[in-house]
Amino acid sequence: MHTPLSFVHRFEPGSSEATLLVLHGTGGDENDLIGLARELAPTAPLLSPRGKVLENGAPRFFRRLAPGVFDLEDLRTQAADLARFVQGAAQQYGLDRDQIYALGYSNGANMAAALLLLHPEILAGGVLLRAMMPLEPQPLPHLKGRSVFLAAGRQDPLIPPGSVETLAQRLRQAGADLELRWQPGGHSLYPAELEAARRWLEAHL
Fold it and tell me: Any idea where the Phospholipase/carboxylesterase/thioesterase domain is (predicted)?
């Protein structure tokens, strides 16, 4: 008997060993990034949960107190809950637990960063599109052998470049192999960086 999984989610089977954990942005749901995930990783199984926190009816993965100001207690609670979900889903769907990579956008990318920092055993790495530093982990995790692709916009009104640099610095200090790619644009995603993400995934998956 499987324990029922605690997140509403969508699972798409695939033929590759590595799985993509697909994490939507604010107001998205489990269907939101499936098309993009398929484009970036055509053969990977896709595990796409819906965030449990509602902000004016818009699903998110954790609460914020104001734009860019996160409820850190809620972030820790939700990250632990998501980590348990991923482990349960890996068992239920027969996924290789050592080869789960995140694909997150905005709020989902911040949650992926939080998983790497708080529950490093869950992810082998990931593609973080428009992430910022979610919280300062004490102590830093050991991320040697983990790989991260971080894509940021220089003119992003929601994410201060300094916070992106801090996240990149912490991940590197923790031992992760990190590629940071800056776009001249804002919070939207651009074809060139998605192509770079696709190539990165092709090399890592």
Answer: 18-204
